[in-house]
């Protein structure tokens, strides 16, 4: 049971004034379900705006406040997915387009009647030879003096939300913060000169106060370390099953290739762990294409040989299906029974899978998180494999998987090479196997950096590539931190490419209905469609060896780890592969160096280490988009600076008060709940 003191924070967002049913979806997309999520939705940055008399005064890229009078509304042509534009005029007669993508056009219609002057705040940009402001932050009837501060927070948004709205919700959430007892070790608090938790949150919404932000980050790191230590302590208490396979099934595998040395070594390490009674807790790190799947299969066959069951958890429906197909083919000669369970299995089909799991006729289950629902029971689950585990939060899964009397062995797999200095933060104290050797015969991917202006040539090159019978990916740009705009960009690019290449093109992005997304993926995977246009949803795992060209727009906006993963989609077959990184106009020194590094090496571990160096501080440790986020509050720089202290703090607390029953222990429980590491607390209760 959650401590009562936290109830105001865990109240649903609907309890904030002004949050009606219409805003639930947009808030949900930002991960804001509860009041505390809103309080922790910290400004991404602060902007200073300048009030300008007319547009001639403003500079491109500048945040301005200007009075404009709408003269014309332009809807997109019927059926087209173009933006909604309102043309507006300043006092000097200059015209500026106010532009909206998607459903946000509704706002424009209401707030910008033709002929009535309004004060507009936003970023002045150029579109062709017209000035424009995309999704203005404020539209007011009153003069600029009443538009609030000239410096204001900028929050991450999703479609349907505006800056003033979210700022209002944040203010309401902050007003509800309870006073909580201190969980940070007093000496640490004093040395660092940090504010209390409540003050820190309030300060972080008002300014870039470093102490406040550090404190909040430390809280998160402390919660994470504590939870991992609790899981570890629990693991030591709980017995697993020692599994010894007789090799009979593995001997029947007819792999079309010989295992690499790294694969053999990893399998031996896993097999060694599984023969122990203590549950295995192992991470298999291996670059995209390093061959993790077959390692997972061997591990699962060991469990089956020992008369037990194994489950493989994938982060997405697409990946679950792909794993299922691959494993079923590979394992066919062994006679092991493999089934697929996802959220979409219904009725009879689902019933029969559940029966099969219970009576043991299914040996291996592949699926999405549906395989861990309460209604799913196994006869004897002894091994859990978690693919692309960074999407889940490994410790949480471990805790879930450990629900039974006997803890299953766990193998987590990730293609995100993580710098050594961050492994502890992300994975706690797991054992690690590294697939640091690619299967033989892989060709280097020819990587080139090309200015975006040479788009025409790129499309011509693409045309030749497709005409030659090969397939290609086209990854669309990330726009201004907004998923809405990302999708708008992808749809616009798709429309343009479709005009040129017709039905050979399919589109995949996160907002498509799952059936459509799968059908499009399937058309591409089967070779019917030649070109896949996508946002970053193809990032993880998809395997289409015939695709040998990858185009990535505005490559400088992607994280290097993410570029590396994207690039790993090609170079999977025998053909020579090419990756074109299109870059926008002005690149910083670092931006240049980062893209140069991509050109220079394909070693994911090296890219991860050097990216960390290049990025230095400030940048978030993976955004939600890139899926590598382990922390919501702590930045990469903060993780590096603060983790050692937080980890030591957590250890000390566990040594003194492993049951978290002292006054500070009780406060630490609040912290665990606050950061939703309460599975840690639940482990405590179980014991
Ligand atoms: P990932 O580590 O990204 O999950 P996969 O397991 O999907 O990689 O393997 C990528 C491709 O390499 C697959 O087509 C797989 O069959 C092939 N492969 C795996 N191991 C070897 C090997 N030892 N020799 C040759 N090809 C291999
Ligand atoms: Mg894989």
From TrEMBL:
Q: What residues does the Helicase C-terminal domain cover?
A: 468-613
Q: Which residues form a coiled coil?
A: none
Q: SMART domains attached here?
A: DEXDc, HELICc
According to its UniProt record, what is one Pfam family this protein matches?
DEAD
* Helicase ATP-binding domain location: 273-435
**Origin species:** Erythrobacter fulvus
Protein name from the UniProt record: Probable DNA 3'-5' helicase RecG
| Gene3D superfamilies assigned | Nucleic acid-binding proteins (2.40.50.140), P-loop containing nucleotide triphosphate hydrolases (3.40.50.300)
Could you tell me one molecular function GO term of this UniProt entry? Answer: DNA helicase activity
List UniProt keywords, sorted A-Z: ATP-binding, DNA damage, DNA repair, DNA-binding, Helicase, Hydrolase, Nucleotide-binding
NCBIfam families hit by this protein? PRK10917.1-2, PRK10917.2-2
Q: Which residues span the membrane?
A: none
Entry-linked PANTHER family? ATP-DEPENDENT DNA HELICASE HOMOLOG RECG, CHLOROPLASTIC
